[in-house]
């Protein structure tokens, strides 16, 4: 699974945000089920940042979020993400996709 968290960060907060996001990524990367990830900044709109992570499964990602280290070091910065869906299934040739309906209740 793929997780995309986007952030809007002013230039005055950039250095502190980048340091905090790096810590968050490092803590997530240490969790079981982490496959890979990157931190990026938009080329056309430098106030727009992204953290992408890849996980073996949605369960691995959810377990990572519930760990003490992640709650302490990553969740505070992840809570600053833009309010939009962030979890995606990877679409590969001939793969069976999840049910195509919203999970919102």
From TrEMBL:
The protein's organism comes out as Nocardioides humilatus
Q: Which residues form the ABM domain?
A: 1-91
InterPro entries recorded for this chain?
Answer: ABM_dom, Dimeric_a/b-barrel
Annotated protein name in UniProt: Antibiotic biosynthesis monooxygenase
Q: Does the keyword Protein transport apply?
A: no
User: Highest taxon of the source?
Assistant: Bacteria
Q: Name one GO molecular function term.
A: monooxygenase activity
> What residue ranges are annotated as transmembrane?
none
Record keywords, A-Z:
Monooxygenase, Oxidoreductase
Record Gene3D superfamilies? 3.30.70.100
Answer whether the UniProt record assigns the keyword Oxidoreductase to this protein.
yes
Under Pfam families, the record lists: ABM
